[in-house]
Amino acid sequence: MAKRKVPSINGSSSADIAFMLLIFFLVTSSMGSDKGLPRQLPPAVPPDQDVSIDIKKRNMLRVLVNTAGDIICNGEEVTLVQLKNKVKEFVLNENNDPDLPELEEIDIPLIGKVAVTKYHVVSLTNVVDTKYHDYIAVQNEIARAYRELRDDYAMRKWGKKMEELSQEQQEALIDLYPQKISEANPKEYGKK
Prior knowledge:
It comes from Porphyromonas cangingivalis. 34% of the residues lie in helices and 16% in strands.
């Protein structure tokens, strides 16, 4: 009796099945990324409205990040920690220094009348070739300065950090120390 040849499994559709499984898992799996900087953009300005704003020199802290990752703050090279401290000093202006932002007394709910640097702005500029890592590190330090100011005040006033406070208390702290960061377009230095 002759042996019959055992038929092989048809593998022509195996690649199709594998591809469909791959697509299924790519579509159904979540690839969340918690990286980034949460920012609230200003409202859109109507096209017929002038958007230029005059800011007094004393009310602006100029921060530049260059190609080498150096941080220049108002013409002086600083480290990340020094930058954070300079931002805090700039926003507070505790001694009403004429070289720091103007103080104006305002009434904030839950806090009362307090002198704040209402018109301060931290202007962040970078060179086109600035490394993303360096730029984000500077952004984080500026944001950390504001967080520390708010946390310090919250601890003095209510004995808790800002994140532990009620929504109304958090809003009062944001009114006390509003995060005002202006990001200028990257510049190309040394090119004609």
